[in-house]
Amino acid sequence: GAALRLEKVERHYGDGESRLSILTGASLVLSPGEVVALVAPSGAGKSTLLHIAGLLDKPDSGEVYIGGREAGSLTDAERTEMRRLHIGFVYQFHHLLPEFTALENVMMPQLIRGLDRKEAAARAEQLLAYMRLGERVKHRPSELSGGEQQRVAIARAVANAPHVLLADEPTGNLDPKTSRYVFEALTALVRASDVAALIVTHNMDLASKMDRRITLSGGKIVEV
Ligand code: ADP
Ligand code: ADP
Questions:
Q1: How far is the CA of 170 from the centre of ligand 1 (A)?
Q2: Contact, 82 vs 69, CB < 8 A?
Q3: Segment 89-113, tens digit of pLDDT
Q4: For atom 21 of ligand 1, which residue has the closest CA?
């Protein structure tokens, strides 16, 4: 089944004369293992869409399904749980915890979920090896390059084997060569873990390498 499904999602801000319709019936299906680029100009509604897909914001109408489960009927506690277990986030800046090593940062989501330390460490090591950071597990974020920090953040985002990975310009502050390397590692990890990735990017070189490209036009999602 679909990892993520948005069905006729609408989102409006304000009301009356100042009412702003950002999403006007946005529909999208992402399959496991798929990497999809979201490319659209500033103000088009990319963040709004990512927040709704990530259960950080609610649509005014329409439905959001994560791994087949409709999110609209969940309680706040269930939404938080769903987000924690089934959705991974990566941002332009990594937000790694500075006082912890790469390994500990990747273990964190699993420990919060209640996994025991040994299991969490084993999975974190595996993910970091996958991101070609096997030699960096004991390093703190400040001891890693920008590209390495982002690869740790990506490993952390998929640590709980989520259905969906939502990335907001994950290579936005990296040089082109590093961006490509980080993107290739992300793609390999997404395919291996059957996560569906939705990646906001302005990097057309990377977008051209993804499975599909979508944009927002008049508040609806269209393939480009
Ligand atoms: P993008 O990420 O594509 O730049 P956003 O989703 O951030 O677009 O914003 C789309 C539009 O919605 C913008 O015009 C923005 O000013 C407006 N907007 C976003 N969030 C809010 C909000 N909480 N209240 C009012 N307007 C908002
Ligand atoms: P930096 O940000 O310092 O360039 P990266 O995070 O991009 O570092 O890379 C970290 C490690 O990955 C380094 O050992 C680097 O040599 C290697 N690396 C970077 N880009 C590539 C690439 N395109 N192909 C193979 N190895 C790479």
A1: 19
A2: yes
A3: 999 988 999 999 999 999 999 999 9
A4: 13
Torsion angle, CA of 28/223/198/212, rounded to 10 degrees? 120
Cα 190 from Cα 47, distance rounded (Å): 21
CB of 145 within 6 A of ligand 2: the answer is: yes
Q: How far is the CA of 203 from the centre of ligand 2 (A)?
A: 19
Q: How many helices (H) and strands (E) does the chain have?
A: 7, 10
Would you tell me how many other CB atoms lie within 10 Å of the CB of residue 35?
A: 22
ipTM of the shown complex: 0.69
Q: Rounded to the nearest 5 degrees, what angle is found at the Cα of 136, between the Cα atoms of 160 and 173?
A: 75
Mutate which of 179, 181, 186 for ligand 2? The one with the most ligand atoms within 8 Å of its CB, which is 181
- The reply to whether the predicted model has a pTM over 0.90 is no
Relative to the CA of 48, which ligand 1 atom is closest?
6
Task: Work out the angle between the directed axes of helices 102-113 and 117-130 (0-180°, nearest 10).
Answer: 130
Among 58, 147, 57, 139, CA closest to 103: 139
- Which residue's CA lies nearest to atom 19 of ligand 1? 48
Is the pLDDT at 169 greater than 90? The verdict is yes
